[in-house]
Amino acid sequence: MYTLCTLDEIEEGDSKGFSSPLGPIFAVKKKQKLYLYANNCPHMGITLEWEADRFLDSSKQLIQCATHGAQFLIENGSCIYGPCKGQKLRPIPYELDANNNVCLLVNATA
Ligand code: FES
Predict the structure, then answer these.
(1) Does residue 30 fall inside a structural domain?
(2) Staple partner for 38: which of 14, 78, 90, 110, CB 3.0–4.6 Å?
(3) How far apart are CA 14 and CA 99, in angstroms?
(4) Total count of domains within the chain
(5) In a domain, 108, yes or no
(6) What is the residue range of 42's domain?
């Protein structure tokens, strides 16, 4: 297990990027539910954000890649618009512990 942050560190309706043992990842909190994905656009394999912690479009309803504008559903990472339409962001499994810490499911040596 790797403790990434606490649930409260990610604001409702917003996104945040992290370095992790699994590489760069990002989190989006929507309707009090947390979604974690690898920060890796399926189009060209590069990071998505246009500025630190900015992974969403202007309406904050979709994840957006800054490079060519691909847009992804927050809930499942599916690309619904752009050059990688039909592909998906890679979800990152996690658990919340009793203290609302967001814990990645990686072993200690990962
Ligand atoms: S690298 Fe993300 S849309 Fe092209």
Answers:
(1) yes
(2) 90
(3) 21
(4) 1
(5) no
(6) 11-93
Cα separation of 105 and 102, whole Å?
10
Phi, psi of 101 (to 5 degrees): -80, 140
User: What residues line ligand 1, using a CB cutoff of 6 Å?
Assistant: 41, 43-44, 46, 65, 67-68, 70, 82-83
Q: Could you tell which of 26, 84, 88, 89 is best to mutate to test the pocket of ligand 1, judged by most ligand atoms within 8 Å of the CB?
A: 84
Give the Cα separation of 55 and 40 in Å (integer): 11
CA distance linking residue 50 with residue 56, whole number of Å: 9
Is residue 36 in a domain? yes
What pLDDT, on the 0 to 100 scale, is given for residue 110? 45
Ligand 1 atom closest to residue 45's alpha carbon, by position in its atom list? 1
CATH number at residue 58: 2.102.10.10
3 lies in a domain?
no
Query: For 76-105, what is each residue's pLDDT tens digit?
Result: 999 999 999 999 999 999 999 999 999 998
